[in-house]
Amino acid sequence: MTIIEKVKETFLECEPGTIYLRSEIINMVKVRHGVNEGSVIPSDYCYNLTNKDKLSNESLNDFKIFEWISRGKYIYRGENYFYKGAVIKKPCKIVTKIES
User: Fold this and answer.
1) Which of 25, 33, 47, 56 fits as disulfide partner to 83, beta carbons 3.0 to 4.6 Å?
2) Mean pLDDT score, 31-36
3) 94-97 and 49-51 strand pairing
4) Above 80 in pLDDT, residue 97?
5) pTM (two decimals)
6) Beta-carbon neighbour count of residue 64 at 10 Å?
7) How far is CA 18 from each of CA 11, 14, 59, 67, 94, rounded to the nearest angstrom?
8) For the chain, which residues make up each domain, given as ranges?
């Protein structure tokens, strides 16, 4: 099972709109699947955050379940959420708007 599959399974029964701290997300996946804490990177699974590594990894770029709201805080949105807001690109911190 890949780390993405483990994160996905961990949050399947969670309520969209719930706010989680980074540490809670990591702990939830660690407790359920026994993964190394360093393997769970919540920002990799965000609709509104991206970076060079994420863009070059199709599986990371396709799997999104969180919306980043502030340092260490995320809202669980679930897969296939219709996100229409700004996307923050790291490291250059350019904000772009997704048009639909």
Assistant:
1) 47
2) 96
3) unpaired
4) no
5) 0.83
6) 21
7) 11, 8, 24, 11, 27
8) 3-97
What are all long-range contacts of 49-56, with beta carbons under 8 Å and residues at least 24 apart?
Answer: 49/87, 49/88, 49/90, 50/87, 50/88, 50/89, 50/90, 51/89, 51/90, 51/91, 52/91
Strand order in the sheet with 49-51: 49-51, 86-90, 94-97
Print the SS3 string covering 34-94. CCCHHHCCHHHHECCEEEHHHHHCHHHHHCCCEEEEECCEEEECCCCCCCCCEEEEECCCE
What are the backbone dihedrals phi and psi of residue 7, each rounded to the nearest 5 degrees, phi first? Answer: -65, -45
Cis peptide before 16 (omega within 30 of 0): no
d(CA 20, CA 74): 5
pLDDT value of position 100: 46
CB 94 within 8 A of CB 78: no
Terminal Cα-to-Cα distance of the chain (whole angstroms): 33
